[in-house]
Amino acid sequence: MTILAMPLLIGLIGLALLFDFLNGLHDAANSIATVVSTRVLSPQVAVLWAAFFNFVAFLVFSHAVAYTIGKGTISPDIVDARVIFGALMGAISWNLITWALGLPSSSSHALVGGLIGAGVSKAGVAAIVWSGVLKTVAAIFLSPLIGLLLALFMVLVISWLFRRFTPAGSDRVFRRLQLVSAAAYSLGHGGNDAQKTMGIITVLLFSQGIYQGEFHIPLWVVLSCQGAMGLGTLFGGWKIVHTMGSKITRLTPAQGFCAETGGAITLFLANFGGIPVSTTHTITGAIVGVGAAKRVSAVRWSVASSIVVAWFLTLPAAALIASAAYFLAGFFA
């Protein structure tokens, strides 16, 4: 690596960490919307709670998701500075657009779309690692469905177990339990989303010859990514908190516990399986599940449908922006 290339490398790592920060900012709602909407925690305390568990997630999970992003989306052989720049610009731009609109979209799928758009712009469709991409695409459908079914099942079980409790007594129990479920969801969130940026930075480092040999995630990359995500969560994403926490359906502490726990189980399974999933999709499915358990009309389907539209737009939109950024970067190369 030449001395001139080093500032570019540092700049790209900084851009990747900015994406990670924005990921935490954008997806803070996924971790705290239910616990804030049920008034178990104030927004300020909730973001501190979520940010802490976002950061310590690396102590619990392996780096399987980072390996999927780093090696299983586009071929590592075609990765260079322009590809990484295009991918990050596609993901960051789409995150900012949906954040400004208050739409819960997937930072994960924005990043995958960005990688595909930039990779295809350089090397054509052959750049795509289809096994990894298809696994990610399948998760678009499966993660909200699994979250929904788990949350729905938990509502039914808890309704039976607590059938002799008064509403006030049940609320007291679940206001405490929601602290645990919110922590578990934030842990799963940090274990999945921060790893995507780890994969991006690591494949860039290997492509530039900074590291050689077997692909591995350096500890400083792990700590930087977990820290950037936790910092982003601290700043919150209040428009999306409002959409997730109250616009889809009104939640009680018991329902909030069921939604967070169903979502957390889904994320834990994805983390151990190395599947990059959308925390947004997962918690939305879980919230819809607890709302539908009460009655179908309790879910504001018009809001839920607008969120689903944003999901399906994310991959192609981020890919198109990334492709444009890739070609634009060529003029300054």
UniProtKB/TrEMBL annotation:
Recorded topology in the membrane: Multi-pass membrane protein
Protein's cellular compartments: Membrane
One Pfam family recorded for the sequence: PHO4
Transmembrane segments: 47-69, 81-102, 108-130, 137-162, 217-241, 303-329
Keyword annotations from UniProtKB, A to Z: Membrane, Transmembrane, Transmembrane helix, Transport
Nucleotidyltransferase in keyword set: no
Protein's UniProt name: Inorganic phosphate transporter
Source species: Sphingomonas natans
